[in-house]
Structure prediction request, 523 residues.
Amino acid sequence: MDLHLSHVSHRYGAVEVLDDIDFTISQGHIVCIIGPSGCGKSTLLRLIGGLEQPSGGVVLQIGEPPPDSRNPLTYIFQDFALLPWRTVRGNVSLVLEDQPLAQSARGAIIDDVLRRTKLSEFGDAYPRQLSGGMKQRVAIARALSVNPACLLMDEPLSALDSQTRELLMDDLVELWSREPFTACYVTHNLGEAVRLGHKVIVLSRRPGRIREVVDIDLPLAGRSVAHRGALESLQDRLWTLLREEALAADQELADA
Amino acid sequence: MPEGRAPARPVGFRGGGFAPRPVGVVGPLVFVILLVFWEIGSRLGWISALVLPAPSAALAALRDLFDSGLLFKHLGASLQRLVLGWCLGTLLGVAVGVAAGLFSLARAGVVPLVSAIFPIPKIALLPLFIIWFGIGEESKVATIFFGVFFPTVIAVYGGIDNVDRGLVRMGQSFGLSWTSIVRKIILPGALPAMLSGFRITASIAIILLVAAEMIAAEFGVGAYILMAGNLMATDQLIAGVAILSVLGLVVGWLIGRAERFLLRWRA
Prediction:
């Protein structure tokens, strides 16, 4: 299943947030969206997943999601969005409880995703007992449990410290290498974008327009080691593109 | 650092404080000391028995009450009114509060009404309730019911308002049904606010119970206290007040247990 954004625009009242956004998320690819703060990145993600309706244009789903996909468009949130009154298992279980699944099948799915995210030992822990990185791994496990056709990740690593971020990026690459998933990954961190993206979409400041689409034709696994130089120059190029926008966006906020 | 010349001294400590810790024995100790002084003062005649009877006299009055079998008659009558009034008020208050927390129409209809009626001291309405429901149990239960109902509504819809909308959006993004979101996300999220509401409504219920019993009741702790006052039997009066204090403590303890059990996921 591919996702195609066809001339999507969005406005909140008189404020134009997104203008004529048009791109495709192909199956098995990770598309990163970067842009200065307030450019409507998160809004765009909410539009893609159907949590908000665009004022103009349409988000199209091309082809059917795999039949075993229980929630084709699945989010991973910046603030993890875990229920503090449920354990790790309970939090994963939550999103399966409305599905027509036998108790044993549900348990098996939970075991499987916790194993894939290296959380097997922490099934009975409450979120308050977990570090930020662990919390986000629970959120990833929860997302994997519904077999998403496309993951919608809203700055998933931004609430974490830089060391945890590195570790989780490796985890994400490993997960993808074992079983390629489709994802739209919103971030303001250029390093994350060049490490994880097959395609990087650069948005301008508000109203967000596509400034440039950068394809990265490097294998995801081992990219940061084997192609360190290439990634660095790419990151520099993205920064040159973004710098003026970020500066202008910053001034805009100061004036507002 | 220039050696030997500049004098070295430790940086002065200026942090700490502003973090009261629980100290177990102090509370009971204050009680005991106060009671001992009170008893000594009475025995030595510093405090007139009519103005304030000795704790031992109050205890004796309590024992008399127990021996005569009237203690449980009074306590039973009071507890029945309290439990009935509080439970009814809480049940309906939670139902209306949840409705006001979830539906715009219910909120628009309920909130102004609650704001208008909540500040009325419910005991002022007791004569009206007596006309409506008679002089029996119903009017007293109704007073407690109304006293409990309104603050419960406010606590519940306030609690629902404060549930993290990010969690609700998460539920929607995973395609959870409306009932699942309410049952598994909104209600547990509002539970802490509801429980602190219960703490307040339980105290309100006890206050209204005694007030209602003082106006019109044959049995009940409030009636017992009023009777003792009319007879200038201050030892019985103190005994009655002590019963109320214990009642309040027990209710508070029960809610504390409920909190510890239901909110064990909190730090």
Q: What stands out?
A: Chain A touches chain B at residues 49, 51, 71, 73-75, 77, 79, 81, 83-86, 94-95, 97-98, 126, 128, 142, 146 (CB under 8 Å). DSSP finds eight helices and nine strands in chain A. The first helix of chain A runs from residue 41 to 48.
